[in-house]
Amino acid sequence: MAEDAKTLRKISVAFKDLADTVDSKTLDVEVAPFSHACSLVSPLFGCLGIAFKFAEMDYVAKVVDLSEASKSIQTLESMLELDIEHKTLKVAGSHSRNLLRVKRGIDMVRVLFEQILVTEGNSLKDPASKAYAQVFAPHHGWAIRKAVAAGMYALPSKAQLLKKLNEDEVSARIEMQNYVAASAPVIQYVDKLFLSRELGIDCAMAKVARRLRNVSAAFIELADTISKNQDVETEDFARASALVAPFLGYLGFAFKFAEMDYVPKVGDLAEASKSFMTLEAMLDRDVEQNTVRLAGSHSRNLLRIKRAIDTIRSFFKLILTTEYGDMSLKDLGIKAYDETLAPYHGWALRKAVHTGMFTLPTKAQFLKKVNQDEASARTDLQSYVDASATVIQYVDKLFLSRELGTEW
């Protein structure tokens, strides 16, 4: 308990040390103390619950990468220069790209603390919403922003947060203020590293351009795990599934219902990953407790997520095999829907979805939304189609091998 009680204190002290280095103007910030300080912030995302689960998963992985980088690279500046030299600066997973995302994480916490300090009452909804809107929202698609907004209603109260951190309000205010003051020059230092090299710090469009590549890469990793006869980890599956959400949004009104249903279920699996390392363990727990078919159970949500992944797979496959030019994707959308989701929907919903298909974009409009030309898009679409088929079969096998069925 004593260690937990020092959480905010350890964070503020670590960032004060970094700020002192920055203020000296003679020393470069080293990767090891920077990554250590950032790792101390990680538990705060966990304390905020499901609203920031995706941020926590993304942040922790990138801090770990920087920690590994510190074994071979001494300073943040040399790390950035190395990526520039190798032309890997904006490559997904590069140290410099991860540095920029980690910086956003510590900036979000800075704004959150600022808002907590000036907000009366016990609710964290307003401070957290303002922090998210200011720092993360500009870099997120509609689906993730919607999921985060929904998750804000599950935030702990300020009193609950302080209890989780084993702090009283007086000590918490002091350490929050210390962190706010110390993190600001550190954040400005990281921004300056990029801006002084005319690299920019806003990769929102680059993120859009890589969405197809990222989702295909994530499912290739899952498929590789399956091909090695290893169990699929819940966190990896949830992260890959989250990358599918924007594509439901790109398909417009016809798939809006699917997107709204899909995003909270992915959030549930992300939350479940805290307790269940693998999908198999998660399913077995529901079997043991006889909750497999219970509305809202992890296993039931897994099955629904699998169907949405299959819908996108079917749609991408039809795009690849149909010469459509600049015509509407309506017929392809109807066929993909009828093959995957329609059997589980009532007549009224099927009718509404079919009607909504008239609003689907053209192929050219779809490619513009994902910011890719047709040649590069075809490669990534095919990769997703092939890899997701393996993942879908794996999930089906989890249910069928336990004689649970998948048609419910």
UniProtKB/TrEMBL annotation:
MF terms (GO), sorted A to Z: ceramide 1-phosphate binding; ceramide 1-phosphate transfer activity
Record domain Glycolipid transfer protein: where: 29-167, 232-371
Coiled coil regions, renumbered to chain: none
Presence of the UniProt keyword Transport in the record: yes
GO cellular component: cytosol; membrane
Keyword Transport attributed: yes
The entry's keywords: Transport
Family that this chain belongs to: Belongs to the GLTP family.
Listed name of the protein: Glycolipid transfer protein domain-containing protein
Organism of origin: Papaver somniferum
